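User: Predict the full complex structure for these chains.
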Amino acid sequence: MNLLARLTGGVPARSLWCLGALLVLLLVAPALLGKYGLSVLILVLYFAFVGQAWNIMMGFAGQLSLGHALYAGVGGYIAAGLFFHYGIGPWAGVFVAVAAAVAAGSIVGYLGFRFSLAGVYFALLTIAFSEFTRIAFDHWGWAGGSGGLFLKVDAASDILNLRGGPLLFYYVILALAAGTFILCRLLLESRLGRYWLAIREDPEAAQAVGVPVLRCKMIAIVISAALTALAGVWNAFYYNNLFPETAFAMGRSIEFTLAPIIGGLGTLFGPIVGAVVLTGLGEIFTDLSEVFHISGLKQIFYGLALLVIVMYRPAGVWPWIAERFGFGEKRR
Amino acid sequence: MSGARLELDGIAKSFRGLRAVHAVSFEVPGGAINALIGPNGAGKTTIFNMIAGVYRPDSGSVRLDGRQISGLRPDLVCDAGVGRTFQIVKPFKGLSVLENVTVGALHRRPTLPDARAYAADILMQLGLHDRRHQAAESLTLPDRKRLEVARALATEPKLLLLDEVMAGLRPTEIDVMVTFLQELNRRTGLTILLIEHVMRAVMALASNIVVVSYGEKIAEGTPAEIARHQAVLDVYLGEAEPA
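Assistant: Here is the predicted structure of the two-chain assembly.
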């Protein structure tokens, strides 16, 4: 099968076995973990998923977005609002949510890329859009304004409306993360993916060999925004509340970038490894800070982790692991 | 693949009032190898950039086989059949040598295995095949120049613009590149326009030479004619003192 061949072509057999084992392990994990363990794993998968979405733009196409909270926020708010006001469940609402995030991404992308804003200037544009969307939502009655939007917490499981316990949310986020992993692999092993890498490395040289730079960048931001919106919808229904102050916060946008940076920009597995390191260890530090009554240990750990990575493993944790253990994924 | 005819018709370009190129016209017949020479700052690279679509000429037009290409975006100029190298080399540094050339090959061969096979073939011809798995940033300058040529060729152009690909090469390496280009031109009929300071290469390759100075064309002719041309000698050697 052509698709399967493209998916697995050139990947060492041991990597495939390990991936398969990992997937099985993740599928049975809820039976092995307690309630707390599951909640941590859910967070890990969430950050792995948004990290993968962000990595498509920065890691693959080389476009720095520091405003990805915009897409998650817009997606989450729209799906939650449709459910809250009209009883439209998220399985339908997600299409509207994704469409809205895609529209937002297209506007940001077109303004930035059409007028050749590069690097930090483009990043500033993404921050600006995220910020003024936050202010707009602060004043938008339909979305609850600055007081926030709350979904009724139902104990009863209702899969059709994405209502239920952690187990449901665990499998949904696992499906999203695993699906995106496969999507990223297919994208990278395509003409579009190679064009993204070329744009990341040198846009002028890319254009000279026939790469339609503007179109490729637009596709990158649209895919990235759509996936991030999915994460936003999931997040809204998992936590059941939304506030503009947190949904569109600069801090949230930064949070989305950490896993891929720590794990390895532009790699397939980097965002996942980064999420394990950051969220996993981050939770341990949260516990420690409670035990020892020192607040902010987690933040200190995040800062130190970034520092250590930037200084000693600037390509990220995953390329280093991959090389040591022969899993054979390089940064491309 | 056969060569396309290039016509420049009075192209001009100014940067903030500074005249870089003024009404330059010349023609490169299909299948020919011609050279564009002139002192540093004469406007040679600006002319290349106008052909390749990086700059839109303020006036005049560029035609490829009679079709106007000036004003098109660089990727569309590539599409029309123009491949170019950069004077200051621009490899995709983080990618391997093979992947660099594969990106070029993808232009007309949309599937990766196809493009990769074609790229490997071109690397073989340019003697870079042994280094195909190295990162492009680890290459020496002469190899980077070769990589520029390979990547441009991978787009299967009808006109190849070479911007000082001999600079920094040793004489023996220059001879290898000259032989490669002659062979390529003979085999495929590819039209080549080169900017070059290495006269050894220009004299060996070009059937016709265009000389520019201060943004204007000052001479055009066969290598033998150019070598004797008074205006060219003045530009390169300084004007003779009046007796």
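The interface with chain B takes residues 189-191, 194-195, 197-198, 200-202, 204-213, 266, 331-332 of chain A (CB under 8 Å).
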